[in-house]
Amino acid sequence: MIWHQQPIMINIFTYGSLMYPEIFEAVAGQSFNNKPAKLLNWRRHQLQGESYPAATPCVGHQLEGVVWFNVSAQALTRLDTFETSSYAREPVQIRTSDGAMHSAHIYRWLDLTRLLGEDWSTHMFETQHLKHFLNTHNKV
Predict the structure, then answer these.
(1) Which of 16, 97, 8 lies closest to 56 in space, CA to CA?
(2) The domain 10-132 belongs to what CATH superfamily?
(3) For the chain, domain boundaries
(4) Dist CA 47 CA 120 (whole Å)
(5) 12: closest CA among 98, 89, 104?
(6) Considering the entire predicted model, what is its pTM?
(7) Element (H, E) at 10
(8) Are 18 and 67 a contacting pair, CB within 8 Å?
């Protein structure tokens, strides 16, 4: 009997530009089911000189974002390339908007010297950077 190994699929928790379906789908090369989600004891930071954020563990904070379910290996390769070596992908436990807990991976920012003391603003990204960001990364 020949066993066919199931392709590895994981959930990805996003908290910045990849929360937006049009950007996520352009980068990943396909669409996936998603839900709003929260991650406890993590913080989203504004980065020096960038329109996208960084996330790091931070006790007492809560990170709101989107979880993308069952991301394929091919899409994961594209996401890893997009995030570059500035981030490390690591496992976390997130809670979706319906209260369910899920295992997921997050891209954690590595260079703490580039973090600013303020939180990244989704409103500022949407009004000032989203259109340009999408135009730039829609060809990924």
Answers:
(1) 16
(2) Gamma-glutamyl cyclotransferase-like (3.10.490.10)
(3) 10-132
(4) 8
(5) 104
(6) 0.90
(7) strand 10-14
(8) no
Q: Which of 58, 70, 52, 57 is CA-nearest to residue 16?
A: 52
Residue 5 CB contacts under 8 Å (≥ 6 apart), including other chains? none
Q: What is the pLDDT of residues 28-77, one digit of tens each?
A: 999 999 999 999 999 999 998 899 999 999 999 999 999 999 999 999 99
Region 101-128: mean pLDDT is 94
Q: What is the pLDDT of residues 2-29, one digit of tens each?
A: 555 556 789 999 999 999 999 999 999 9
Backbone angles phi, psi at 52, to 5 degrees: -100, 160
Give residue 52's identity as a one-letter amino acid code. Answer: Y
Rounded Cα gap, residues 22 and 30, in angstroms: 10
Encoded tokens for 10: 């994981």
